[in-house]
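Entry type: protein chain
Record version: 2
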Amino acid sequence: MSHRVTLGWPALAAAGIALIALGAGAVYLLAPKPPGSVERTAVALVPAARPADAGSNRTVTLTAEAVKRAGIAIVTVAGGAGRSSVVRLPGTVEANAYKEVVVTPLVAGRVTRVLAELGDQVRKGQTLMQIYSPELADSQTRYLSAQAELAAHEQELARTSRLTAIGAASRQEMERLDAEHTAKRAGLQSLRSRLVLLGMTAAAIDAMSPGTEVAATTSVPAPLAGVVTERAANLGLNVDSSTKVFTIVDLSSVWVVGALYERDFARVRLGSAVTITTDADRDHPRQGRVSYIDPQVDPQTRTAGVRVEVANPGATLKLGMYADVAITTAAADQSAVTLPRSAVQTVGSRQVVYVAGDAGTFTEREVQLGDASGDQVEVRSGIQPGDRVVTTGSFFVRAERERLGATSPAAAEPAPAAASADAVQKATIKVVATGFQPARLSLKGGVPVRLTFVRTTDQTCATALVFPGLGLRRDLPLNQPVEIAFTPAPGKTVDFVCGMNMLRGAIVVE
């Protein structure tokens, strides 16, 4: 018995249209993208993490094999009583401006001889160069002429005085000659002062007499002992009293100038003890004290200059050299303890450590940080002396903690529809030798953001991260993720820069 199905033409037409649509969709999906098209990288939008204190999610249990494989190291927290906090800033070696002199000639003329080279150590009074000066020769000639006229007038005055005594000359004539004599003496003194201003010594002026040869060449002496750091004088150069020919710096002491951030203004005072360290001589730090704090704040970097004067025997500190400036501030909280930086992980806006317990258990504990000094950081609350804290391998423990928290029954429960308001935008930004990658992100406004920054190289100045608009600064340890969490306002651009304000990035908020 056969069954026969008859299809009408409407059914056949509908089936044909469906097959054509299916084929067109396959062609579109499989077709290559046209040249020049741009693929946008989406920022992950994930549900916000539950609070860290949500029951058992704060504790991680690892096997002995996992602890060994991760290279986890544990330190016992020691007390920090009696420690002093330290503010560290980058600094630059500069010349002591009170011992730096720009040399200019006292007379106009032509340079005939240069006796000092760039980098020479010179003594005070040592001749730096010689100048042929027609101005000096003319002033000497006028002085000798005035000196001869005064001598002749003094003879006439003496003769008239004798004639007046015997009644052969009038008293009026004697008074006239007295007035002329006073004027000539004043004119001679004025010309003598001019020669002193042109650099002639009193002994050299006294040695001049009518008939002697006029010296048209003068010497330019060093005004202080030091090193020649600039030389503009060359043979044949025409100079005047405003021409800069040499710069001499006394390098027996130098200034180290650092940039102090606003948050540290209240902690640094005039007279604060300072330790200066340079890469060229790390085994021999220098001691000094803060001698000046700039009253003006740089509007770009939000820092103020701090000056420290340090002795420089042997001139081992070179001008322009970078230095590490460690300023000792007031004593820290007696209850504070210190940990290696590697022990602290940043989770959102919180700093946490992992305290080791028995049988491979590690408990996440939120801490409040204080000042940092080298590879150590002050912990003001959250742990106590005697606690055993993970240092090396803390990032592994954190990753395991987040993994277990994400797969726990509580986390696996489906979120209600209203929970979409708690979503978080996540993105990772790497710090490489050329800058931030990516350096520009597009995010949605009004939705929380969690950015993870990872510095992957030492060949960069971005060892710290600054969000100027948020008033936020974070250190960027090598190969250690640092999280920044905030909620951007719609229609705003959030800028971020490196700690030295040289590398820049931006978050465009839609």
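Comment: Residues 1-7, 9-14, 21-56, 407-422 have pLDDT under 50 and may be disordered.
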